Structure formats: structure tokens, C-alpha cells
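Reopening this ticket.

The earlier resolution said the output was attached, but the attachment link was broken on my side. Pasting everything inline this time so it's all in one place.
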Amino acid sequence: MRQLTNADSTPNEFFNRQATITTLPSIKQVYKDVRPKSGGAFDSSQIATIHFTVDPAQFANMMNSPLDNKERKPLKAGFKFINANTVYSADEVKLKVSGHSSRKRRKVSLKVKFNKNKGDTLFDHSVIKLRAEYGDPTMLHEKLYTDILNSIGVPSSQASYSRVYVNGKPQGFFLMIEDIEESMLMRTVHHGTIKEKKALGALYKIGSRESTMNYNGPRTTNYYPWMYNNQIRGDNPKDEPMQQIIAFMKDLQDWDPTDNDGIAYWNERLDLEGFLRSMALEYLAGAWDSFWYNGNNYFMYYNPQHKIWQFIPSDFDHSFSSGANRVPVETSYKKYGERGRVYKNQPLVSKLIYKNKDINQKFETILRTIAQYVFNDKALEERIHAYETQIEQEVAWDRSIDRSQLPGVTVDWTAKKFHDSIWKKKDCITRWIKGRAQTVNRQIGQ
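Inline output:
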């Protein structure tokens, strides 16, 4: 394993790439920035290149049967990461297909796990995901969502773009995103003040639809393990890994939303501000495959330093008008989620945001602030245009790769569709942003 970084040397240049570094217009930092100080691998101003070296037959077998991958052992692969100033390599990483429904598509996402026992990490990241973004003709939805999370001070995964090659052959253009696991918590949530896994609190990956934080009983066996996947046990007993989060759900069930001290009550149990910011962005971006609408794609982390729960969002591909379940842009936040799977059974939203007047007022203030300073056409269009210029050739290169021999659903793509899905289509990103911001003004005023 080696890592070479020399800021004084000539930057690495990349074949058939019009610019090595892109100047990106900034997005206003509305709330305190909670990102790690070092950008490391996730430098949005440049597109890295990743090379894997892996047994060709094993890799072909994995790619030809991606739906079997959940039970398949990861492949052993050599890894090399190259950006303008860094060349990093690891002799052996674990490589496998990633995702759920996305594995049914012809281009699949990948997960890379480094061997921490050998000291191998990518800028202290022990796990990264390479998101295929195959259902998004712009390949911008998740990246832009992550940028906005950063601007509103919500702890989240970082992301940047990368070309990927396997055994010297093009695999595609991907969004590289850090996984939510120990090193991310240490870096982003605890800012380096916790350095060992054993000192971390409990972490739950809650990625199945209808995981709504409803109390179903006092024992772990009262809950489906595929709904509440305990990733880090923390202080929970080995035979009751959900003990702490069950106590949280019991408090949620028993709490009376007419309580005049609702903000104080929840500040003792939850990062209420962070949760409300996350919900505001879910609504603004129409992220229908997330918590509010579908009870899906989020983590709950018990912060042992502050003794409160933190809501950590994940997976933002179905946002900015994306997908068949798109909610009309003019829908108010009070009506948002009515067509969703969990609308009548979502206590964190219904009790806190809808039914408690003080928390509702706080939520509306946050929603109005984000819409005024970040989530509007004037604040975002310059950055969107810069991304469009940065990645348009990369997206075209990705779509030119012959995947006809692979299984799964193929996606029709043209350069016109790429640009129109940003600027011109009725449900394009920029029209969604402008329309949603205007909707907020009509709902709660200036």
C-alpha cells in the first residue's frame, strides 16, 4: 500500500477530460458546517479515477448475477485511486455489488471495503460506495442533495465523482460516497474526539420501507431485524441490541404532543434541530424514498457524548422530482406524504412537526430559512451549471459503454435528455427547485 501526495508537483492530468480542476460556485452556509476539515477523497472540484484489478471470471460472474450478491462473498481486488495530487493503492480490498432495487438495472453500484487491520483506508475511509446513478439522466440528484445537507449543517456522507476501470476496461462513471459506519461517525459526528469503535454509541441502519419508529413492545424480538439493522451495539446488551432505541420509541409513543415543553422534552432525547433540518430538505427536494414519505433510508445513532439520538439521512437518488412516486411540486408540507406508505403511522413527523405547535413553528422557521437562502434557483443554479459542465462528457462516456451482455433493465439516454432533465423538462431539477421554493413562500410567507 502506498500514498503519494505532493501539492508542489505538477497535477496529474487525465485523458479525454477537458479540465482537471473545476471551480464550483459556493452554496451559502446557512447553519454551522459539520463536515470534517479535510476533504480528502471527496474533493468536488475534481473527478478521480479508480482502477480495480480482480479475477476476470469471478468479476464477470458477479456482474452477470447481481441479484445473488447479497449471499455472495466479496471478491478480492487490487485498488488504485488517482486524482490531481494523489496516487493511492491498496493490494487487497473487498469488492461487491451494492444496493437493493438498483441491482435490477444493467449498471449496478459497487461497495469497496478496505482492510483496516493492514492499515488500509482511503483517507481514513474504511468503506466507500460507488453509486451507479443509472436511473438519473443527470447524475446530479444525490450530489446536489449532499451539498445542501452540508450547507444546512446536517451530518451526512460526503460524495464526489469518479471514473472506474476494472482490469483496464471502462466500468463507468460513478458517484463515490462514503458509507455511514465507524470512521464516518468518528470524523463527522464526533470530529475526532472519539477514536475507537468501542467508545461509539449504538448505530442502526434503517433502510426498509415502513420503518417508522413505532413502538411494538419492549423486546428486540418484537421488531423485524431487517427493519432495524443494528450496525454498532454500543451500550446495548448482547441479547437485546435494540434496548436503547426501543426506549426512545416508547418515549415517542407515550409523549403527548400538546405538551407545552415539547422542544425541551425532545432536546433531551434527540438532536431536534438536525432532525427538523433533515425533514425540511426531504420535503423541499421531494425525496420520496426517504423517511417522511416512505419510512426508508436513514440511520439512527445514539451519541454517547451528548446522550441524544441523531437522525442521519442516506441515499438520495429519488429526489428533485425523480421517480414514479414523484409528489407534485405544489404540494404543501402539511399534505406531503399523504400518498406515501407511512403517512398515518409516522409519529416522529405527525407528533413533532404536525401536532406540537412549538416544534411546528420551529420547523416552519427552518423550512423558510433553507428555502430563502439555499433551496431556490438563485442560490443553486450557478453550481448546477458548473456540475453540468464538469460531468457532461463523463456521463456521455458512461452511456457509451457497451453493457448489452449484462442482465437487468437498460435506461435510454441521450445528451439532450441529460441537459433537458436539468433545465427544460417539465419535471427537471431547476424547475422543481424554483417551484418548491415558491410553494414555501405561499405556505408560510416571508
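Reporter confirms the inline version is readable. The first strand starts at residue 2 and ends at 5. Residues 1-7 have pLDDT under 50 and may be disordered.
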